[in-house]
Write a structure and sequence with these properties.
The protein contains three helices and no strands. It is mainly α. Helix 2 runs antiparallel to helix 3. The longest helix has 13 residues. 13% of the residues are buried.
């Protein structure tokens, strides 16, 4: 994949079931989207990456996927998008003891 080349969620390394669900959400009318999504899974499973790509697809100025180079996509990559609230859990230090 080249820089600036349009991507879609099928290009990500996610299970077909997850890709099918997220693509179905993108095909619906944007006024019907739930306001919150929870991405959960084991550590280093790619859930944060998947969530960021999904946010790009929802907010990209292009249609049918995400470009990665528009203002919205760049702000999401930098985690400074005013349209998105980032909730990052605190690491449980005692978990590994």
């Amino acid at each position: 994949m080249n820089f600036g080349e349009k991507m879609n969620l099928n290009d990500l390394f996610i299970t077909p079931r997850v890709a099918q669900f997220l693509n179905a959400v993108l095909e619906k009318n944007q006024s019907l989207f739930p306001q919150t999504y929870l991405f959960q899974g084991s550590s280093y499973s790619g859930k944060e990456f998947c969530a960021l790509q999904f946010m790009k697809a929802l907010n990209c100025q292009e249609q049918n996927g995400f470009c990665g180079i528009c203002h919205s996509c760049k702000n999401i990559d930098l985690m400074i998008s005013p349209d998105i609230h980032y909730l990052i859990s605190k690491i449980d230090i005692n978990k590994n003891k």
